[in-house]
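Fold this sequence, please.
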Amino acid sequence: MDWGLASLFLPELALLGTALGLFVVTTTVGGGESADLRRAGAMADRVAFFGAVFAALLALVPAEGQLFFESYAVGGFSQSVKLLLCLGLAGSAWLSRGAARGQVSVRDRPEFHLFLTLATFGMAMLTSATELVGFYVGLELSAYCLYLLVAMTRREGDHAEAALKYFIQGATLSAVALFGMSILYGLSGTTSIAGIGAAVTAEPTTLALAAVLLSLVGVLFKLAVFPFHFWAPDVYEVANDGAASFIAAASKVGAIAALLRLLTLGLGHDGLFWILGGLAVASMTYGNLAALVQKDLKRLLAYSGVAQAGYLLMGLMGRDEAAWSAAIYYGAAYLGLLLLCFIVVVEVGRGREDARLPISAVNGLYKKSPMLAMVLLVGLLGLAGVPPTAGFTGKWLLFKAALDGGAFWLILVAGINNTIAIYYYLIVLKAAYVDDVEDPTPLQTSPLGPKLGVAISLAIVLFGVFPQWVMPRLLDAVAAIL
């Protein structure tokens, strides 16, 4: 392979190099002495973070072409998603420094970052795979790494039960997706996603529609769409904060990209998109109603994520560049907003033995850490779709895409659900800004935590006010895969 072709694979090579570096740390730096283990853990923190940042910088380099006998396509779409994935990995690696406070044993910290990096690599493969075989390999690589990340948590809580539920449900739905892909191969005689899409469009039979839906199940599981969401509340609640943030935010970006790839299989089948509309209504309604009664902040974010998946499906119902680019834009905004919320989770939960974080833990946050309270304000208001955040702009673009597609009824349902969501987000903000706290002692935070939150908050507002900075690139990127 010449350098021109190898340059198309640079972000993935950076992730593999980071994984290799972490593997070397696990085998050479760590030893039997506690001091060696701590040194290995600290080195793993740095390798994972800076490796992710380096991969993100490489993803900024424009690249277009095909690799591996035209089974791997690189272009504006894949590079944009890989950039978001690498930024999500960097944020989660930074939040995972909490492993030093007992969330993950010191001995396991290098392996923890290794699995986090390999999960990102698997999702990067999903964004570029143009063959079902490569697509499925990337899906499974990312999935099994995430299962292990949840199981590695070492805090009081039902982490073993949550990891087992996550694994069993994921493996089962993965088998269902593989069954659907095998049917598509039988109908079309090819594993090429473009070839299958052409065959399904030429003969949009009921069997083809059923096979496409079965193939989507594995990705809908990652997106936590109702009724494939049952793993999410337990995993969010008990997993390591860094792993939970990655599963909640970065993996959703990968799932959106993977879903866009698979939806090209059913572009000629109208029934598929009405089914997506039904799933969107179910996810929005169930997620928001379930979130109303939650007392744990991370479980509330989990059910909120189920509802947010419903909003994303609104954009995916459309079959044009505007609708799908709106979904990617909102996925990027959701990534930033979830990182803001998890920065607060990490800082407020510092030193807690229990993995759970009740909403009452943020009582009086404004008095104990005004900067951190502001970060929580921007994060929750963005999730609620309040201007001028990117959350508002993203929802407006999704609603516009649904309206252009003639689904006014879906916008009406989404508007009602968003009103419900504002209520439970305000409950958390009331705790942070209004409720009294027994101990008003200033919160001991990390030196960079609140400052990083402020920087992300500014980016959320700027991209909310000026979406034209990124939307033209997203429109061009999506046009390449339609």
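The beta strands are 65-67, 72-74. The mean pLDDT is 85.
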